[in-house]
Design brief:
Blueprint lengths: L11 E8 L6 H12 L3 E3 L24 E8 L16 E9 L6 H12 L7 E7 L3 H5 L8 E4 L4 H33 L16 H24 L3 H18 L2 H18 L6 H24 L8 H15 L5 H13 L7 H18 L2 H16 L4 H14 L18 H4 L11 H7 L5 H18 L2 H15 L5 H16 L6 E2 L6 E6 L8 E3 L35 E5 L4 E9 L5 E9 L5 E4 L1 E5 L3 E11 L3 E3 L3 E6 L2 E6 H12 L23 E5 L5 E5 L6 E4 L3 E10 L7 E8 L5 E4 L1 H6 L8 E9 L8 E7 L5 E5 L5 E8 L18 E7 L2 E4 L3 E10 L3 E2 L9 E2 L2 E2 L1 H5 L2 H6 L10 E10 L5 E13 L5 E11 L3 E3 L3 E8 L10 H16 L4 H19 L1 E7 L4 E3 L3 H8 L3 H5 L4 E7 L9 E2 L25 E3 L3 E10 L5 E10 L14 E4 L5 E5 L4 E10 L3 E11 L4 H7 L8 E4 L3 E6 L3
Parallel strand pairs: 1-3, 1-4, 4-5, 5-6, 7-18, 10-19, 21-30, 32-52, 44-52
Antiparallel strand pairs: 2-3, 8-11, 9-29, 11-15, 12-14, 12-17, 13-15, 16-19, 17-18, 20-22, 22-25, 23-28, 24-25, 26-27, 28-29, 31-35, 33-34, 35-39, 36-37, 36-38, 36-40, 40-41, 42-45, 43-49, 45-49, 46-48, 46-50, 47-49, 50-51, 50-52
Helix pairs in contact: 4-5, 5-6, 5-7, 6-7, 7-8, 8-9, 9-10, 9-11, 10-11, 11-12, 12-13, 13-16, 16-17, 17-18, 23-24, 23-27, 24-25
Length: 1213
Amino acid sequence: MEPDVSIETGSMIRIAVLPVGGSIPHPRLRSYVEMLGRHTRIDLSSISSFYSEHQKSPFTHQPWETGSLRFKFMLGGAPPSAWEDFQSCRKILAVIGLCHCPASPDLDLVADQFATACKAYTSALAKRCFAFFPTDSQLEEGDNKRENILLFPPSDQKTQEFHMLTMMQDLAASLLMEFEKWVLRAESAGTILKTPLDSQSSLGSEEFIKAKKRRLARAQKTIGDYCMLAGSPIDANAHYSTAIELARLTGDIFWHAGAMEGSVCALLVDRMDHKDPLLEEEVKYRYYNVIQLYRRSYLQDNAQRVSTVSFELEAALKLARYLCRRELAKEVVDLLMSAADGAKSLIDASDRLILYVEIARLFGTLGYQRKAAFFSRQVAQLYLQQDNACAAMSAMQVLTMTSNAYHVQSRRNSQKMCPSPQELGASHADGGKMHPLSIVSLFESQWSTIQMVVLREILMSSVRAGDPLAAWSAAARLLRSFYPLITPAGQSGLASSLANSAERLPSGTRCADPALPFIRLHSFPLHSSQTDIIKRNPQKKEWWTGSAPSGPFIYTPFSKGVISDCNKQELTWIVGEPVQVLVELANPCSFDLMVESIYLSVHSGNFDAFPVSVSLPPNTSKVILLSGIPTKVGAVSIPGCIVHCFGVITEHLFRDVDNLLLGASQGLVLSDPFRCCGSTKPKNVSTPNISVVSPLPLLVSHVVGGNGSTILYEGEIRDIWTSLTNAGTVPIEQAHIALSGKNQDSVISIAHDVLLSSLPLKPGGEVTIPVTVKAWQLSLTDSEFDASKSSSGSARRISKEGSSPLLVIYYAGPWTSPDESNGSGNSVPPGRRLVVPLNVCVLRGLRFVRARLLSMEFPARVSEALPKQIYGENGITEELKSVNQNDSLVKIDPHRGSWGLRLLELELSNPTDVVFEVNVSMQLDSQQSEHGTANFSNEDTDFGYRKTRIDRDYSARVLIPMEHFKLPVLDASFFSKDAQINNLLGNKVSSTAERNAKAELNASINNLISKIKVKWHSGRNSSGELNIKDATQAALQASIMDILLPDPLTFGFRFGENGTASENTVSPEESSISDNPPGQPGSRNVGRAKGSVLAHEMTHMEVIIRNNTKERIKMSLNVSCRDVAGENCIEGNKATVLWAGTLSDISMEAPSLQDITHSFALYFLVPGEYTLLAAAVINDTTDVLRARAKSDSSDEPIFCRGSPFHVHVVGTA
């Protein structure tokens, strides 16, 4: 059999091309052959000048205008075929020698060599030797040389090609004339044509007689062959038709098939430019007959042990090549599979080799890659049966070509392992991950056995061929792709093959196919809180606002409100600062794996990677840290890692492992190497867009006194000193401090001015900033129990880790980069963010248990003067200021008067191991209002208790009088707020005014609570303040108006002077100035005790009524006296007290913010304890009075009652 056959092969003239003379350099020989190969077709119209007709041509229908001669150059020649008489196209009809004159100075020797080489081709009708680049001496002697040597003088390429065309036209004309001679001779004298089917008996035998009868048919068929070679298909068809008829008559089946095959060739060449279904059907019909005839001839002549099945198979291949297109795929497949079955009948292994090669080619042309790969493997098997290096090299090359179909190809031979985005119909935006369709095309588990076999065959052929790199590549692919199906011994054997192949390779050899380990991207660690990078906004004064973190995190605590596109993640690196990337390595095999070096693969040239060595035990995985330093500004791409393992350097791409894991998740891959090594399920990590910027400043922080946690009790206040150092090479010109994290309210103050005054902070500069922190209150959500118990045996509660506030320092260098001239001039260097955690560990301290509001009355005793008022026109009176502050709130003198007292009770407990001293203080305002009365302000007068000691595991209660918070004036504005609040609470009506009223009420409560300070000191020389806001606010919520606002009218009693019975209007000062007794010296009142009166004497008294509103009030006053039993002792038959003056229905009018008095006298008949009560009925009510009394009716009078005053009556001596 012959390779690359087709139906038109019968019209091709075979020419042997032989290099002669000295050794021709390979580039020269290749250029000569390429120049020759351009002339495979010579038009008949172009050879007329070289053609001379010596006698009438037998080719009567020669198409001189459209016909052509076809050449098939056989480089190196070809051995003669035993079937040359049967098919003339198998003959070598011309010989062309190629000579490189600089390598062959003696042309006589060249001529002799060429003549000797031509003797092997007895069928050659023309001989030419082309001598290129002859020297001047060779050109001068050229005329004396033999006519077969043709010199090609040195010239340009175009001239050389034109010269070659001329020589080939001359050769074509010579061959045409020789064909005419042969045909004329065959027609006149005849010829004996024999094939291996014919017997080699004597002339008198029966076979000779049979051959003589068949001679004419065979001669006609051979003449038809020469007509085809001469380019005259019409003449050839006429001779073929005659041969077919004669062969049918003589029963020469084999030549009958050959003649019919020639007729099909003549038909196609004659109608070369015409393609129509009728022609195709005709070709198919004739060729199927040809195949049947060849098969019959084989069965008939099988007894002669000469096989003609190769012609049957060639005919099937020719028809399959003619029909080879997708529309006729089924018919072509049938022909090829039938031919493959006939391979069993071929005796010669070379014929089977050619058959399998042709079948594989046709299946590949048809697009059936798997079938083509199967027959290619059959070719490789035939090569491997030969025990020589060349055959092994051929087998390796064939198997390498089949590796694409089996998806075990080397990465070197496949630059693109997945379909393009256009083929898949969409682009991939997931960081290089492949489409599922491409995963299916890459990994097919059902082919695993065949794939392993193919790789083993490639490995074996590579070892035989002596190609260590190909052997290493095959072993690496086999071990990496099919380790689950290979036994531990087999895995160790492959590892040995890798090591043995590496020993035969030069040091530093690189291979495109990675072996072990499997490497996947674990994560890109972000810049730490010490080196975080942010973008600068030159359009804002707050240049750091709106900045997002420099890493692939979708959310961080510092990017609140900033929307980040997770599909376009960005990472910024700085020139000269080390960076790190986490990768995970897996060794799923049963042997120890030693990785000599591994480092990041960066092709951009602006990154220096640091190699590390790793040892992986069997079936283990390990996460390692790979680092490097960016060297230049620009973009950085990290597709994978460079690994030096098994003596060869390979590149491991992250994308390949991602695709492998995706295939494993879809069941398309045998195993997940990381899961079988015990690794957890991988995260979806995509490679961000990495950019390198110019050097930036670097701020490093540490806490003065150590970076450990500062231990504080709840409410404790302390300064934390933080030192900041510029460890970079660029000065810091801008800086700003902000707070973040939890418990930000615990930071009382930050020394911003200290940092700003240190700018610009040069490299190596340092600044220390104090931060005042107040320990926060622990709750169940942000606290936990300490593992170490306290001395009391109970576990103490401490704050959780991460609950401390964070100092966020934004800083940046100059606005322009030092190398801005080399980069983009419009870019602004980024800034940085330093996060300094204030490591505060809060311990549970003094606890505030609860707060209660208590109400009580202390009856005052009637004396010569009323109690001094706290508020006067000049604010706090001098007497109150002179009183000892510790006594002013604790001790109450009943003779000075105190009524309607409200007390705030605070209950405190100490669950700690230390002793606390508590000091409760209260701030009173000294600022005056526009009406001359005092109100709250920031300039306060403090009144506090003595310190209260609270031992551990003990509690204490503190009472705080609230009378000092009462306002001196009853104003209408307070009642409008109160009414709004009540309306809000009762009707649930939501409006802006009501919300404002509620806010004002809360502000009043907060203002009141802020006046109460509960401070503590512990034995550890620490101090703090207890937070009582929430509990106190709840205690005061319902009674805030009663605490803050006075009654419209207040009443008081005092002893009057003798003879005084008139009603007077006095000022508040005059009503409380005199402390002298009402009687003159020597009166009867001298002997009584303080605050007491004598029975059976007329005692003069005054009732003082104060108007606390800004309006005049008309009232009806009543005074009553009761005994210890609560009975009225003035009225009735059993009255024990006589009176002088008016005690009931007294009409009076009190000016605004002033006092009025009413005098009367009492005569006590019985000693004892008596109580005086004053009450008034206000008829003409106003909105203020109704609001204070919480009355809705305008006609209903308002009743005001004063506090009781006690009178002690003693008997006479």
